[in-house]
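Good day; I would like, with your permission, to put a structural problem before you. What I wish to show you is a protein chain and, alongside it, a tokenised description of its three-dimensional fold. Thank you for your consideration; the sequence and its tokens are set out here:
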Amino acid sequence: LYAFLMSQPAVRRENGPSRLTFPFNLRPLLTGWNLLFNRGSEPKLDATRSAEWNRGRYLVDGLGHCGACHTPRNALGAEKGGSAYLAGGEAEGWVAPALTKLSAGPIPWSEAQLYAYLKTGTAQHHGAASGPMAPVIAELKELPDADIRAMATYLASLSEPLPAAEAEALATRVEQQTARAVNPATSPVARLYDGACAACHETGRAAPLLNAGPMLGLSSKLHAATPANLVNMLLEGGQHGIGSMPSFATALDDRQLAELAAYLRGRFAPEKPAWKDIDAAVARARKAGH
């Protein structure tokens, strides 16, 4: 990295004053933090694992620094260790979901699904990348395919993947349980869903759409502990595969957004408890400019 930076043309620019607040504006005080949490050491190869696995761990923990978002932090802002490693964190108002067996989705991550997600931004059994993860996926396109495969291999080892046939059977069962046939649009909010979401997300068509959205019954956003990611997605919109989801920030008011989020949770994640703080999540997302 240093050699690359030194090869770039020189520029002249006056640095702006620091806007760090106390105690972060006093560099000597950070020495203690570094002694506690920043004792970096060169990772050692795990001889019991494959070269691909070791390469994947290096990319995930080093250059990829996935833990910066996907690992929770302690009161002093350092990433937690042990069982909290990649167990889910926060980034820019979004929840960075767990990348381990603690994943909230109904189907555990597999190597194939992780590879597809990192390669394209969409995983059939989990959904589409959004928020801060979307530009990460764009940047991963610069990586050799072998590196993306290595990352998927390593991350899959942190989960407990189902056999492919069992995962497909579970996906089919979820699709049947959440289909329109057993969830008729008998309420105003269900009809709101039909008008705003069903055209792209409803399954069971005789001729599936080429740019259909992810199956909502498998979406990690709807199975998460909080409605933050779903609300942010409704407000911002985003890309999925070759399609895109529009923003509903101006089309729906706060009440409609909250009611729609509650309906989606109840229909597509019926085994999960109802969200209790949707109104507050909508207000926070609006204030943050999502």
User: Anything to note?
Assistant: The longest strand covers residues 89-91. The chain has a mean pLDDT of 92.
